[in-house]
Design brief:
This is Decarboxylase. One of its GO terms (molecular function) is peroxiredoxin activity. By secondary structure, the protein is mainly alpha-helical. It is built from 7 helices and no strands. The protein folds into 2 domains: 47 residues, no CATH class; 67 residues, AhpD-like (Up-down Bundle).
């Protein structure tokens, strides 16, 4: 559905909650990525809003059966397996912010190598190494 006036965080409490969840997980606000860019159709903003609401409003807050840390490690595995490297970068940040260690994430890439292929795992691990370098002191439980 395309709207002339897409919902904003100011007018839609569900969207505002999704953006707050994204900020808590990623460590930054998503709004800078959610507008339209030159050449993009107007309904591109609708896609971004709906995708954000689904992922960060519907799925990430579900913690009854999977805690956020586990969900984040699953998401790292999925992004690495699919070879979607920019989304992987975000999933890695979420995993680290949720308490996963660099060592646990390295183990995820061993699992990806075993079941999705070494080349795919190696490509993903290169992104992980870049994310790890953003905070070189972070390692081990609770860091």
């Amino acid at each position: 559905m395309t709207t002339n006036h897409p919902a904003s965080a100011a007018t839609d409490p569900g969207y505002a909650a999704a953006l707050d969840t994204a900020e808590r997980l990623l460590g930054f606000r998503l709004e800078r990525f959610l507008g339209t860019t030159p050449g993009e159709p107007a309904n591109g903003a609708d896609f971004k809003r709906i995708a954000t609401m689904h992922a960060f409003g519907d799925v990430w807050p579900r913690t009854e059966h999977l805690d956020t840390r586990t969900r984040a490690l699953v998401s790292v595995t999925i992004a690495a397996t699919l070879g979607v490297l920019e989304p992987l970068r975000g999933q890695l940040r979420i995993a680290l912010n949720a308490g996963a260690t660099k060592e646990e994430i390295a183990e995820v890439f061993l699992q990806v190598a075993a079941y999705a292929g070494v080349a795919r795992a190696f490509d993903g691990y290169q992104v992980a190494a870049q994310v790890f370098a953003e905070d070189p002191e972070r390692s081990g439980p609770g860091k």
